[in-house]
Design goal:
heterodimer; A: alpha+beta; 6-stranded antiparallel sheet; 6 strands; globular; B: two-stranded antiparallel ribbon; elongated
Chain lengths: ~80, ~800
Amino acid sequence: MTATTLAKLPVGASARVTDVKADPVLEQRLLEMGLIPGASVTLIRIAPLGDPMEFRVMGYSLSLRRNEAAAVAIEVLP
Amino acid sequence: MNRTDRHTVALIGNPNTGKSSLFNALTGARQKIANFPGVTVEAKLGVLKLEHTEIDLIDLPGTYSLAARSPDERVAIDGLLGRAKGMAKPDGVLIVVDASSLDRNLYLATQVLEFGLPTVLVLTMVDVATERGISIDMDKLSAALGAKVVAVNSPKGENLDILKQTLHQTLHHPAKPLELPYPEDFRRGVDTLYQQLCDIGIKLGYTPARPESLRLLVDASGPFLEECEEVAGPEFTRQLHEIRDKASGGRSLALIESTARYGQIGQWMLQAKRTQNREGRTLTDKIDAVLTHKLWGTLVFVLVMGLIFQSIYAWAGPLMDIIDSGFGALGDLVGSTLADGMLKSLIVDGIIAGVGGVLIFLPQILILFLFIALLEDIGYMSRAAFLMDRLMARFGLSGRSFIPLLSSFACNIPGVMGARVIEDRNTRLTTIFLAPFMSCSARLPVYTLFIAVFVPAQKVLGFIPLQGLVLFAMYWVGVLFAIPTALVLKRGILKSKVTPFLMEMPSYKMPRARNVLRVLWDRGGSFVKRAGTIILALSIVVWAAAYFPHSDEIEQKYDAQLEALQAKYEPAVVEFEPDFEAEPQNSLEKIAKAHADHEAAIAELEEEHAEDEEALKAAVLEAESALVKALDDLRSADFETASGQYEAWLEYTEAASAIENDRAGDHLENSYLGVMGKAIEPAVRPLGWDWRIGMAAIASFPAREVIVGTLGIIFHLGAEEDEESGTLRETISNDKSFSLATGLSIMVFFALCAQCAATLAVMRRETNSWKWPITSFVYMTSLAYVAALVTYQVAHALGG
């Protein structure tokens, strides 16, 4: 298991959230949307222009910009 | 019906849960929109009729959380606590929950349940959940939440009666606030803060609710915190920080809150939800594989955007023409029944023209919102935003800004209104502010006129027409200034608030006619009622400025001229008023009709053979010999006399209309508007303008395209001149005070100015504040002035 952030997750890979560190407003929104420590996340696709990214978390699809995804620390699941 | 039989119930839920569908299904057609000052979202009010009870249903804006970082997000809590003006305090809540993403939807539900209001949880999209292999045990869920749970399918009307009954029963039972297992320090923090809040309750002007102290403890910023700090002073802020420190124990308060909620939800789900992992992809996954694909996705996107733009830009045209000519005909009809004078001018030029000026925008607004409502209902809006976000993010916007800005090229008004699809408040405000920079079709007449007059019809590099190039450049002027404006806005006024993009990608759904029609009705109605009144009022003010003082001296002067003219002709000529619809009675009428028929035939031929000059020439020759023959057939005893009278009548009508045009021009020059034009002349001189253009610019405040007609009047050509008119073009090109530099400066000014009362009125309506339209007007006018100044001075120096 490797520690990194959601921004570096390869397409199709899954990970577990370990921490969320951002400015208070972004941090709160990420947490509210279900990116809490322990949640599992899968990167479904990246937009054709390279940003944003679409994740599956808590059974729904959430789109995040790369710099927002970078606020979410993860460990990649095998 | 006594007082206890009337209830108020709030409807709350995440976006994309089918909340609006449910609201429409429960309340039917009787709905009102409630606005909050300074808030750019709206709540809707409707009435739900039960057997012995009427319930006022408040549809609160969709939200993922009660944490309010902006006044817009504050509406949910204000609605729940009955703090909005003209709304009662709800005695019950319907929480709408999407069964296919139950966990995240329950996050908001836990926050709402803490208010302790009688609550019914409404499960929607159970079919989507089933498709994903999710099954929900509603009894266990209900027991866990301590609230009744009803699954509905509002489009099909399934279980709506059960929901109504359940709601009715629930309203008569008191409820207990939900207790979540927060850490002890956190809970104590909420308690302490609640005491503090109650102490300042008098200063706040309302009794704070307990869950509000939780929000104040956790939310780092937002309108509630600002309000408390303002009324309670620095001592309160100091204590708040102390309480927060104690409650957090060094961790993030937002993290404590969210893990407590999701922890509880996870436990409930263990009891109430079963998920079978289904092999294979859902329908949404399959559609997304195409619609977000690099090639196919982009292609579909370009096609959809092209269709939207084309339909607003071109297909709205015929509808607008109908409205335009309808109001023109109405004006003529009313005008013909009224005597000349102020009342006629007020009704025809002020009121009828003003109402027409409002309704003319409806086709574009309705067409844009037809697409927006459809795409939103289907779920494509988020995909379009997903595709475009990177491009728009460079300018501090989001992917959702794309459609409003694109439609602004057709008309700024639907563009500003379309910005409501943007969830984030700051991005929405930025988009609204930028929309008027896009070169709308109302600027086109201004460009067309001045390009035709001043830009030579030659080719650059042998194949690019110069006139087309200048027109193209004018379209880019706005975009060019919009980009730095967006960046300044993001770093300036709207900077302090970071705006996360986070966007849910909902599953695809079939659009519902009822939802779409509802949106069209709401948007059209709100434009006509709220923006329309402002536009009409402004049109009348500008009409009055152009009409008064309407001095008798000028009237008498031209009356005398007209009398003198009439004295030169015999009464048969002066009184001759041909009616080409009726059968001609005498030789004069027959001759006039033959000429009129001939002119109509020529006009038809010109249209028919617009492409083929040779064919046109031949056809015209043929028509002319037909006229000669027709006149020949009319030869009779009094033919020569009648012919003479006809010639005299032509001469007379031309001279008379010249006098009327002079009269109108003279009145305008001496009106308050003309006086204003002369007063601002020193200010517009450096732009290469004289008082006439200055005045026309002021007169075009209600709508830019008015400048062309105003120039027609002030050049004594009459109000009927348009940008295609050869006479107006000729007059301007012969006028010494106009030059290429002046023409460019006028075009640049009109590309950048906010000379459109309708856009400003819609901005006021969408932002619920005068701050934005005023800022926009001042900013854009200054920008337009400076840019026109630079354009003129540079072009003039280069010898233009």
